[in-house]
Request: fold
Amino acid sequence: MTDKTSPTFWQAFLPIGFLIVILSINVSLFGDAALDGSNQIVLILSASVAGLVGIRLGYNWEELLEGVVKSISSAMGAILILLLIGSLAGTWLLSGIVPAMIYYGLEILNPQIFLFAACLISAVVSIATGSSWTTIATIGVALLGIGKALGFEEGIIGGAIISGAYFGDKMSPLSDTTNLAPAMAGTDLFTHIRYMTLTTIPSISITLVIFLAIGFFSDATAQAGNIEAIQQAITESFQITPLLFIVPVLVVWIIIKKMPALPALLIGALLGGIAAIIFQPEVVRTVSGITGNTFESFYVGVMKAIYGKISVHTSNDLVNELLQTKGMSGMLNTIWLILCAMIFGGMMETTGLLQHITASVIQLANSTGSLVASTVGTCFFFNVTASDQYLAIVVPGRMYAETYQKRGLKAENLSRTLEDSGTVTSVLIPWNTCGATQSSVLGVATWAYLPYCFFNMISPLMTIFFAYANIKIARIKDH
Reply:
């Protein structure tokens, strides 16, 4: 084994600095097209810089490769979920489930309350399912269509959906991150959830008030006159019936019953295909391009919806824009981005560069407020550099647990901070697994929805405020 030397701060920061500079150039030159491949290359080049620093510190190629493979392996669950979300989106469009959600949603919602309702609905569904990803891929897609029909920009609609979905994910006992954070900090699940309400309820309350205010002062009402035309265009192509909601209700029920996400999404996609054959046989035939053999047309049509790009054409251009999906294949570019991000994160973690930077930060945290602020910053830093919300919870959780205990702070202070920052900010990073996934699923660029993810931005600030103001800080009494 080669003797390893500890990196200096500047050695540890070099790959980060390189990444920031080149990504800035990339975004300025490519704009929204930066995620089509150039950002992926930048992540690989940044990983190469980290690898060169690691070799200089005494690491060999086999060790670096092992770290990269381990990092990629940790993202495989997310990648598989992403593929199944693509297939579910395809069959739920083909079956008329998403068009039915849009149709009935336009009857219930109006521009003044839409953003408020979109955030609240996403929150409720996410609490019930424990998954922001599932919420955004199902009800979120439908809400996006309704919002666009009402005349809202897709960025602000995405912000409302994501704000609600991540509130629910954060507070649900069924959520994996909600279980992971207390496990890393050393407290129990329900103590963690109760303690989170102190900062999370004010954060979501402020968010809902903001969306309600935006709705009342929005000029989207001027574009709401096309609602009837949109509904008519949908009914011309699809058989719209409340029976279509059996499939999403069943999927939500099996998730609540704690079925793992992968089989639940697969069942949802397959049920969507069956519903398409039952309720929309003509649409399936049109998508398949086969008119003679019934079995062949049904098989090919459903299969195309699962794996590839499909669209349903109507007399309304806006509806045509809503009624298209790319299936599994539409997720491949996002998977490419995730793989490159995990290569960079693996190099940074294996060489100890991430740990060195964060250890330097801990030394500067002298008060409770600065300790919590440092934890928030570290979680965000890992979301940016390691590109994975789980690493942004696990690594800071391990790093800070002993420090919190030594400062006389109960473990729930740390677990709450991990979720208030690590979970909710992951979706704000374009190359993070969460940011890349939600952007791909909604078809909205991360930079477009980021300014409107009020809950995701308020939440870490709220936990820092509570710490500096010494509000409801749980302390170890014997300390």
In short: The chain has a mean pLDDT of 85. The beta strands are 310-311, 324-325. The first strand starts at residue 310 and ends at 311. The chain has 24 helices and two strands.
